[in-house]
Fold these 3 entries.
Entry 1:
Amino acid sequence: MLAGCVATAPTPEPTTAASAGPVAPPDPAASPPPPAAAPAPQVARLPPLPALDPPTLRTYSRERLVAALGSPVFQRQDKGAEILRFQGIDCVLDVYLYGDDRGPADPDGKPLPGPLRVAHLEARNSRGGAMAAADCLKVTPRERAG
């Protein structure tokens, strides 16, 4: 009974592309410009690490060497010596450390080996060919302390 009292909205007739007529392109002046891209955030770059050369490296203790070059990919200890291997980009650097003669003396007055220090470097390319240690040091990744 109440159905006769309710007004219903007329249903629009569906339109087709043929009946709608040509579509005008949007007016560029009428549409808002796209939002400007936000500037890329600025990332502070760390200063370059100081250059390492073989003479400087020969003054390093084991601790300082690992702090500069990071963890070795190989290490071996022999009597009073240690070999550390570092992997560079297309090179391998073997570093030989020996106890220096600045250690304390034994009861007979003979000096005991002091802390291990870099004594010798050998470098080779990834194919096993000879390479200058200085060149390998330039491409060996290094870690930053702290």
Entry 2:
Amino acid sequence: MKTDLSKILSISGQSGLFRYVSQSRAGAIVESLADMKRTCFGMNSRITTLADISIYTEDGELKLKDVFLKMKDVLGEDDAPAAKSAPEQLKAFFGKAVPEYDRDRFYVSHMKKVVEWYNALKKYASLDFTDPETEDAGESDGSENGAGQEAGKEA
């Protein structure tokens, strides 16, 4: 089964990753990838989808999905280095997996999160990701046409 990174969440102050289940009156209902327990997080929680995260590169930014795919190319079926690895080991790994990463703005603390997330997805979900461009193409074509028709009516 393919993993949709827009439904995989990182929640500030919480360890691990969560899968979005539903919206509630008080916030979002999520399920831990590790133990499958459901929890509700309020609107004041800082919730970020992995699809919205990028890392800094020398040329701009690289989406986390692309970083994971580059890591998978380097690692094969192996796990990423542990988050508690020495900073030099993490830097060497990212130098091999994503050689264009920005060494001034992509910190070791970020590297630790990325390798934790990679290993969690590998263990509890899948590193085979859905392609949002192909899924959204059918939906956005209809909405773009609808918006264009309405604009034509107003003019």
Entry 3:
Amino acid sequence: MSRPISKAIQYSLLTFFLASTSTAAEPANLAAGRLAYAACSACHLPSGEGVPLAFPPIRNRLPAIAASSAGRDYLITLVLKGISGPMKVDGTAYNGYMQGYEAVLQDDAISAVLNYIAIELNDKPSPAFTPFDAKEVARVRAGLKSSLSAMAKREALGLE
């Protein structure tokens, strides 16, 4: 049985990787997003299909949610703070837990993983998708002390 990597080691590896892969030619930083997605894939699977009745699918979902500023705020909050409790996704009920990554991932890593999910785990190209960036994540992170939880934002968006 393998032991989980500590948050300090995860943070160090991601910081090193992000510093060595970020380029102006790749604003979405998909390589860094792929690396950060490794933590997500334990539950949502490498394909993003999720595990029925346990972990919801995220494949083909992000561009539509990210089309509004409230949706983008929700997605960033979700990665930062995590979420728990009952919810429906594509008509299927889930009642689980997703940890938050605010203490582990820097803003550029969070924007990279969201871009990776939206671009690489999306079967239909979405030319209207605007990539996330570290400044957007920093803005949401700074406002979290007084903002709604991820679940409250999800409910406000009427997501299923």
